[in-house]
């Protein structure tokens, strides 16, 4: 698997890739949902790792460090592909590219949204 920096895919998100020439791999479609799995260079399928994998990795232990979260996400996405019927006769090569800012931003956006729901109505009333 080439370095993800050398592939024409976004580099500011968390990505998982598998080696395949199948542009409609059902296991990738299931594990990437609601995000789309896309074929790149005719031999790798990639997608943005869905937020649910990060939420599950942090669910039992909010004190996990970033490396522990990444390890848990790698295990969970690998398990997801296997459970959803990844063809083991194909290459078993799988890769990930993590961007810690991308993982943190989803939680930050949720926190800001909650803050806005709680604070802004009070501010408009006060004005």
UniProtKB/TrEMBL annotation:
Taxonomic superkingdom: Eukaryota
UniProt name for this protein: Uncharacterized protein
């Amino acid at each position: 698997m080439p370095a993800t920096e050398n592939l024409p895919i976004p580099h500011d998100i968390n990505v998982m890739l598998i080696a395949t020439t199948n542009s409609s791999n059902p296991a990738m479609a299931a594990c990437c949902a609601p995000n789309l799995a896309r074929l790149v260079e005719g031999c790798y399928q990639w997608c943005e790792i869905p937020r649910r994998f990060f939420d599950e990795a942090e669910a039992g232990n909010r004190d996990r460090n970033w490396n522990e979260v990444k390890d848990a996400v790698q295990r969970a996405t690998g398990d997801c592909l296997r459970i959803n019927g990844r063809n083991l006769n194909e290459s078993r090569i799988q890769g990930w590219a993590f961007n810690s800012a991308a993982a943190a931003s989803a939680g930050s956006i949720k926190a800001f949204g909650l803050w806005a729901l709680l604070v802004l109505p009070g501010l408009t009333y006060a004005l």
